[in-house]
Design a protein that fits this description.
With about 260 residues, the protein is an all-alpha fold. Helix content is about 75%, strand content about 0%. It has 9 helices and no strands. The longest helix is centred in the C-terminal third of the chain and has 40 residues, at about 220-255. It is flat, with a radius of gyration of 23 Å.
């Protein structure tokens, strides 16, 4: 049992190996507890979750997803509940991870990391919204109508939910493009000048990534590619603003240091 939550260490504060291991163990237990609570919540509302996942299916033409076997309905519902529980618990898990790693960062770097984390959450929410309301309905409509004069479409539950989750996860990763570019610029691996000079190559690389992402049809691939190009272009201008801000901050830091 966990008696109390571990105290967060201050930046530069020393601790023994045993204290670090004890803190890590406690934070792992807290994360597992959050996951169990998230799983319980997910299972309680799994009917609503399944209805939400089924909404992109064309109404009237494609019925409810099919299950085969005695245990498949329960196992499918449990997997959906587990995935939802992980998403519910993810903020707690990431927060516990951050509290464990935070002492290694000075307050200035800590604010930057938290700002980037908030930016990642906003981008991820945008990716889920785009994937669910724009990408999935059009991709599923195209796929279920393809050669419908030759095939009768019966949607199996497990492959369908795997497809939905995979596409949503893929588009969330796509929407993290500005964050990745900013990180590379911050590390000095890329610059806004390089990005603008190699813009065509960047568009070609994003097209190759879109082809490698989940989506077996050209409609899904195209709908993934368009936001990738827009995000890549936006990343270039974010890099420009970031470099200008760094350039303004550098003289101020030198003056304070002097």
């Amino acid at each position: 049992m966990i008696g109390r939550l571990p105290r967060r260490l201050r930046h530069g504060e020393e601790a023994t190996l045993v204290e670090h291991l004890d803190e890590l163990r406690t934070r792992i237990f807290v994360s597992l507890g959050a996951l169990l609570i998230g799983l319980a919540v997910g299972f309680v509302i799994h009917h609503q979750l399944i209805h939400w996942l089924n909404r992109p299916l064309p109404e009237g033409r494609v019925g409810r997803p099919l299950t085969f076997g005695v245990a498949e309905p329960f196992l499918t519902s449990f997997k959906i509940s587990l995935f939802a529980g992980f998403l519910f618990a993810l903020p707690v898990i990431l927060w516990q991870l951050w509290l464990f790693l935070a002492p290694a960062f000075d307050p200035t770097a800590e604010r930057k990391v938290l700002g980037l984390a908030l930016f990642a959450v906003v981008l991820g929410a945008g990716g889920v919204a785009f994937g669910y309301w724009v990408l999935l309905p059009r991709a599923i409509h195209f796929l279920t109508n393809y050669d419908n004069t030759h095939f009768q479409h019966l949607i199996q539950a497990k492959p369908y939910y795997n497809f939905v989750v995979t596409v949503l996860v893929g588009i969330v990763l796509v929407f993290q493009t500005p964050l990745i570019v900013l990180a590379l610029v911050y590390l000095g691996i890329l610059s806004s000048r390089t990005l603008r000079k190699q813009r065509r190559m960047g568009y070609l690389i994003t097209a190759a990534i879109a082809l490698a992402l989940p989506g077996p049809d050209p409609v899904t691939t195209l709908l993934e590619l368009l936001p990738m190009w827009a995000l890549f272009e936006g990343s270039i201008w974010l890099a420009v603003l970031f470099e200008r801000r760094q350039a303004r901050a550098a003289p101020a830091s030198a003056t304070l240091g002097g």
